[in-house]
Specification:
Number of strands: 10
Shape: globular
Radius of gyration: 20 Å
Number of helices: 10
Distance between the termini: 33 Å
């Protein structure tokens, strides 16, 4: 079953699996999974998760064709492939570097750090990605505003707009119904400003505020457990920022919680990974607006 069409109104298939076998309930195991996903910023979060389930020690993966064409290496006979998902294709088979052979093989075996995903901060690329993300907010009915009414202890918040709010959002040629108001403290420095946006979007795309369209993201507004909601949003922000090479305070929050608790809250890991994927998609280019929010389409 494709991950992007899973029914998210009920517990997703991954969350059912986690619940039945206890996978990643331990705090240490959860952080190990998150750190693994961070190491593969060029791979979609779900695919990085799939790699971890299949082979936690994976270092660097490519298809057999890419190993041959890019690195002049061949897959060892009998090597077991790892499965990941690709748009418009059922699955794609990839292989870890340890399952390949080629020129300078000794160097490859002893210097596999060369193939570990390095995250280097490039502030200009980061700003560009965040600019694309912000431009896409209107497509989901989100108003972004800064305010000086927050104290130093509050970075931002997200909530539903008042029912009587009538000013539509402009997204390309469409007028969009506003649904959510994302407020950010105007006193924040640049990095904190952006990480706050990602944290609040984590709340939204994890379904904590409901949804205008269940096909867009799930409705999990009945959770009503602040610990679960904050842990999910902090996980989303941490994964996003670390995969982009930006230090963020979510790491301190998660570290503090995990150092004091043997197990993590009863979160939806599936919702966390989907939210990260949705936000990363909105950093790459223009997305389609939510059809149920378009006001000028018959």
């Amino acid at each position: 079953m494709r991950m992007d069409v899973l029914n998210t109104d009920d517990k997703g298939s991954l969350d059912q699996l986690f619940e039945k076998i206890g996978l990643y309930k331990k705090s240490y195991d959860y952080i190990e999974l998150m750190n693994f996903i961070i190491r593969f910023p060029g791979i979609a979060p779900f695919n990085a998760f799939l790699l971890h389930v299949q082979r936690p020690g994976s270092i660097f993966v490519e298809t057999a064709e890419d190993w041959r064409d890019k690195h002049h290496r061949t897959v060892k006979p009998g090597a077991r492939p790892l499965v990941i998902l690709k748009p418009f294709r059922p699955v794609v088979f990839v292989y870890d570097i340890l399952d390949t052979v080629g020129e300078n093989d000794e160097e490859y075996r002893t210097g596999t750090d060369l193939f570990k995903a390095e995250i280097k901060t490039d502030i200009f690329k980061f700003r560009k990605k965040m600019g694309v993300l912000i431009d896409n907010l209107s497509a989901d009915g989100i108003i972004l505003q800064t305010t000086d009414s927050f104290g130093s202890g509050c970075g931002g918040s997200i909530g539903q707009v008042p029912p009587d709010y009538k000013i539509p959002l402009r997204y390309g040629e469409h007028l969009i119904k506003p649904c959510y108001n994302l407020m950010v403290n105007s006193h924040l420095e640049e990095a904190a400003y952006y990480t706050t946006i990602m944290h609040e979007l984590g709340h939204l795309f994890c379904g904590h505020l409901g949804t205008p369209d269940k096909k867009r993201w799930p409705n999990r507004s009945l959770i009503k457990d602040q610990v679960i909601e904050e842990f999910e949003a902090e996980s989303v922000s941490w994964l996003l920022c670390e995969r982009l090479g930006i230090h963020n305070p979510s790491a301190a929050y998660l570290s503090s919680y995990i150092s004091s608790n043997e197990t993590i809250p009863k979160i939806s890991i599936e919702s966390v990974l989907k939210a990260v994927g949705m936000i990363e998609t909105r950093m790459k280019g223009r997305i389609k607006p939510c059809k149920k929010l378009i006001l000028d389409e018959k």
